[in-house]
Fold:
Amino acid sequence: MTVTIIGAKSTGFFGKGIRFVERLRYHRDKVNHIAVKVDYPDKTVVYQAEPRKGITNTRTVAEIAPGGVLFYTPLPAGADPAKFIEFLEAQVGEHYGFLSDFSVALDILLPKWAPSVRGSNTWECAAVVAEACRYAGWLHQWGDIYDITPIEFWLAVGGSLIAKPVDRLGSPITFVAESNPQFYDPEQHRP
Structure:
């Protein structure tokens, strides 16, 4: 089994809003969504937080950000893949946190002393994957693990923002970031 973290730059209104807010604080806006791809010998499973469906494991890689850009990076060193997947599986069906996304945006715009407001028992994409990494043994010093942006998570795990085309035929164009030369395989990352 191979676990891959995917950073996505989607083309929709919601994604553009997230990137706008990320640009204010981090001056980077290439990643507005985090997903996870697990390749088993007989199937591929994609985990992600979706606004209407919560945490899911039913999508394909091509459905993560149609018409957008995808970046790939391996699971952080020290994270146990089995524990990582165990945590994500336990979260499937949990609710998406619209209030959490709103809270992240407010936290970027407001001073640090302002309180965070978010819904209990909900997830946004970066928080659920960051918590899965923590459950799996990869520790990172977050100010608030439930209040991080996709770009903040992506940069923390060492994800690259240098995209390389892998689909030579064109439409839709998908890009892959090479963060570890031994890991990069264009054939493996085709949608």
Notes: The chain is about 30% helix and 25% strand.
